Amino acid sequence: MMEVTNWDPLRISGECALMPSAQTRIKTDLRKFYQDPPEGIVVTPCSGNLGKVYAVINGPADTPYEGGFFIFLIAFPTDYPLSPPKVRIINTGGGTVRFGPNLYASGKVCLSIIGTWSGPQWSPIQNLTSVLLSIQSLLNAEPYYNEPGYEQTSNPRASAHYNEMIKHETLRCAVCDVMERKASFPDDLFEIMKVTFLEQYDDYLQACKDGAAKDKMPMRDPFSNSGGTFQFNAIRSRLEALKAKF
C-alpha cells in the first residue's frame, strides 16, 4: 500500500496562486470537458476560484452504485499539469462510509494516476476528464474485487453481500443525504441532481422494496470493519419525504 499524506484538496488554500501555465491548462481542460462531457458526469468550477472544481458522478446502471450522486472536490496544484490534481469524495456520511476499496470514509480517493496508489503514474498528457473517467471506473458491478489482492480470487457470496451493503449506503448517503443537503456543494449541482432524482425516483423505491426483507439484518464492511444494520424501510420514508418536498 502506498501511504500519501498530502492528498486532500481541502488543505490547499483558496488563495493558492496558480502559475499562468496552470491557469491556461485548467481552462483548456474545462473547455474540452464541456465540449464532450462523459455520460453521467457533471462538473462545475468553484465560484471565484479557478483552481478548484466540483464533480458529480452518477452511479452507473447495473452496479450497486446505480442512481447515487458521488460528489468530488478537485483541486489543481500551482504547477498543474506537471503535478496531478488532488481529489476528495465529500459525501461519505460524515466520514462513516467507505464506498469501495478505493473510496475511503476519510474522503481519500486511491488512484495511481493522482499519486495516491501504486501503479501507472500521472503524466501531463492526462487531464480532468481522464481523472474523472478513472474514478467512474471504480464504480463498477463488483467493487469487492477492486481490493488489491482480490482481483484474481473468486468469492461470489462475499461479493454479493458487499454489493448489498454498497447499494444500501448509496441510497442512504449518496441519494438521501445529498438531496437533504447534508454535504456542502454548489447550488447549480443540486438543481441538476434534483432533476435526476425525480427521474430515478421509482427505481429508488424499487431498490428499497427489493431490500426490505433484509431490514435489521447486520451488514459489515470487510475492508474497514465498520457495520450497522440494513434500514431500507427508513430510507424509503426519507425518499418519499424528499419527493413530496420537490
TrEMBL record:
GO biological process: apoptotic process; negative regulation of apoptotic process
Entries under Gene3D superfamilies matching the protein: Ubiquitin Conjugating Enzyme
Record's keyword annotation contains Transferase: yes
The UniProt record lists the keyword Nucleus: yes
UniProt entry keywords in alphabetical sequence: Apoptosis, ATP-binding, Cytoplasm, Nucleotide-binding, Nucleus, Transferase, Ubl conjugation pathway
Compartments in which it is found: Cytoplasm; Nucleus
Xref: InterPro entries: UBC, UBQ-conjugating_enzyme/RWD
Cellular component GO terms, alphabetical: cytoplasm; nucleus
Pfam family, one: UQ_con
Domain (UBC core) ranges: 21-175
Molecular function via GO: ATP binding; cysteine-type endopeptidase inhibitor activity; ubiquitin conjugating enzyme activity
SMART domains per the UniProt record, alphabetical: UBCc
Listed PROSITE patterns: UBC_2
EC number: 2.3.2.23
Chief localisation class: cytoplasm
Protein name per Swiss-Prot or TrEMBL: Ubiquitin-conjugating enzyme E2 Z
Native species: Echinococcus multilocularis (Fox tapeworm)
